[in-house]
Amino acid sequence: MEYTDDFLKKMVQVGTLGYPLSKIINVLDIDDVKQFTKDFDNPKSEVAISYQKGVDNADVVLVSKLFDMAEGGALNALDKDV
């Protein structure tokens, strides 16, 4: 299945939000659910790579924010599991 650059950008966005597969299928109006699910579950596919990029981006933002809070004296920020 071919995916446009615009669609892959949307996959990064839903990865950032941590959406599960069922919600992605619904929100992005996926027609070929069977093929999309295969692609999503294949860690080497563009879909999975884009989704994981979003997940990783969200983690970086969260860790950076917690680090900033800890530097500012909010030591309870260090107690967060990431």
Key words describing this protein structure:
elongated, 4 helices, 0% strand, single chain, mainly alpha, 82 residues
Q: Any idea what the shape is?
A: elongated
> First CA to last CA: what distance?
34 Å
Secondary structure category: mainly alpha
The value of Rg in angstroms is: 16 Å
Unreliable residue runs: none
Order of helices and strands: HHHH
Total helices: the number is 4
Mean pLDDT over all positions: 89
Can you tell me about this structure?
- By secondary structure, the chain is mainly α.
- Helices cover 67% and strands 0% of the residues.
- It has helices at residues 5-17, 21-27, 33-41, 46-71.
- It is elongated, with a radius of gyration of 16 Å.
- The N and C termini lie far apart (34 Å).
Write the layout of secondary structure elements.
Elements: H1 5-17, H2 21-27, H3 33-41, H4 46-71
Q: Care to give the gist of this entry?
A:
The chain has 82 residues and is mainly α. It is built from 4 helices and no strands.
